[in-house]
């Protein structure tokens, strides 16, 4: 298991998937070992995990669906080639 951070991140509304409550989600952000792109089912490393997956390989919708089926309570899609890793968000309301 590779825990990425113990920081708090602000979320943005995606154009797909369920909405987060006003309280957000609290969990451990972990990069799945079996598939770091999130394009396939993976073994849930722990309960209350937030999947950190990298861009590429399949659509964002596919990544979110596979990670939901793998037990993730939320999904963060980042770009490991940019400093800071998490640089993307959906412009939202």
Automatic annotation (TrEMBL):
Q: Where is the PA domain?
A: 35-81
Offer one Pfam family short name for this entry: PA
Highest taxon of the lineage: Eukaryota
Q: What is this protein called?
A: PA domain-containing protein
